[in-house]
Predict the 3D structure of the following.
Amino acid sequence: MPAETLLRRAARLQCPICGQRGLFHNWVQMVPECPQCGLVFGRLPGHWLGSWFLNICLVQLVVVLILIISVAATWPDPPMWIIGGATAASALVVPFLFFPYSRTLWTAIDLAMRPLDYDDGVAPGFVLGGDQAKLESERKSQETGE
């Protein structure tokens, strides 16, 4: 499946494989697997470290942008207490707001880097799609060659 499709679905908080919605019980509690295709979201131990990394990178970007834009807009006498408060507030609020997106986006990135295997437990129709005919022809050639 193309990485673009995986990322587009993940940006909409959908399952990257099948597009199923409703992957979160609430804003911060994700279901363990997709109810439609069966994709287990925590594929390996430590899987969610990547989503934490995405979240931290976004927070750092937002804080630096607030700092640079605020200081540039109020130069030569920037109100550092106000700017500091705004950056501190964004450092606390942005990770919470971005949390579900970081989870689905990281799952999509992981799938793009490490595609599904038969052992991942996803129904074959969602994984194979257009490759089904090619797989069947390869199996037939292996059976006749053995």
About this structure: The beta strands are 24-26, 29-30. The first helix runs from residue 3 to 11. The chain has a mean pLDDT of 89.
